[in-house]
Amino acid sequence: MILRLFFLLIILSITLAFRQQSVGIIGKLTCGNQVLQDTEIKLWDKNSLVLKMDVHFKVYHNCENPFGLCKRKVDLEVPASYVTRSSTVEKWFDAGVLNMAFKYPDESTECL
């Protein structure tokens, strides 16, 4: 019984160690020549398993959206090499300057 409990604790600790992952993104969002205003940014993990995260950087904005009832949504995938197995960010992904005035592939509109 004690041996079974010991192995269960080892398996649980290994599983928890695999779950702890982090990612960091730096960069600048613009609308033409101006800093992007009224923006919501979300990081999503599209992988629900214990495996390495499949991180998506989503930007909800009204740049070049004259009516503004719904926001434009841009979904960009963060390269897997920037996901690290630690509780703190070890490797930052530099997204550079992203001009949201451009129409991005697979861009959509979402009413929040």
From TrEMBL:
Keywords: Signal
Signal peptide positions on this chain: 1-17
Domain of life: Eukaryota
Classification via InterPro entries: Transthyretin-like
Record carries keyword Signal: yes
GO cellular component annotations of the record: cell surface
Protein name per its UniProtKB record: Transthyretin-like family protein
